[in-house]
Structures are given as structure tokens and as C-alpha cells.
Amino acid sequence: MLWLDVDVVEYPDDLIERLLAVGKEIVQPHCVLEPGGATFDTNGWRDRGRLHLDDLRQEGETVPLDAVGATVLLVQADLHRDGLVFPPYLYGRESPWMRPGRGEVETEGLG
Prior knowledge:
- It is built from two helices and seven strands.
- The chain has helices at residues 15-21, 77-81, and strands spanning 2-4, 26-27, 45-46, 51-52, 72-75, 91-94, 103-104.
- Strands 1-5-2 form a three-stranded antiparallel sheet. It has a two-stranded antiparallel ribbon with strand order 3-4.
- It is globular and about 35 Å long.
């Protein structure tokens, strides 16, 4: 299943082919406002939110993440059929970038 946020205004014509070519069950591309620019979707992170895709560019085309965002997200449909959902409730630990006392929400629950 392809999740595409409503505020995405431009993407490559071969986006789906590129995502499928990665060969992983869940794929989040590095979404930016301009080529080489800063990360737009900061819900994709590693190391308890300390590293975002901006920080991982030197690691290559494909990097492991602990959580994903849904600006653009490809999830193997069988995972959803097996029960994988975006939690409709607060999930996980309190995050430093969220209001005090709040946990992670939405796509971060996939991590």
C-alpha cells in the first residue's frame, strides 16, 4: 500500500517502481522540499529520535530506521492484512520534540 500525504506536491514519475526496487516490506523515501535540502518528514528516525534522514545521508541509498513517517510510505499490503496499523492512541515513550507528557503517535508506532 502506498501512503501519500496530502501536502506532497511533486514526486518522480517512477516513484512506485523506485520504492518497490528497494525490496523491503516498509520503505520511506527521504522527502525534502528541494533536492539536497533538509528532511521534510522528521517522523522517520533512528537512535530514539536522535538521527533523522539528514543525518544518515552518508550511509548510502538505503538505511535502517527505527520509526517511519508517512509523507510517502510504501507498506507491503500483507502487513496491514496481518494487523499492522497506525495506532490511534499515544504509543511509545515521551518524545523530546513533542509536548511534555505526550508519546509518539501515528506512523511512529510502526517502529
